[in-house]
Automatic annotation (TrEMBL):
Highest taxon of the lineage: Bacteria
Transmembrane segments: 12-31, 37-54
Full protein name: Uncharacterized protein
Species, as recorded: Propionivibrio dicarboxylicus
Keywords tagged on the record: Membrane, Transmembrane, Transmembrane helix
Amino acid sequence: MLKVLKSKTIVFSIALAILSVLQGYIGLLPLDQKGQAIAGIVIAVVVTILRAITTQPLSDK
């Protein structure tokens, strides 16, 4: 399990899941539709960058 946490992509995904739950329950970020669209774009770009810099599979970490 700790090997998996060495992955930046996995850590980002976990953080994103936690923020999504917080947003759903307490409205942490008051975003309108435009803000939500920008947040979605930022998330997609970060995931793409993390995937591009990935050099080894999780099993090798």
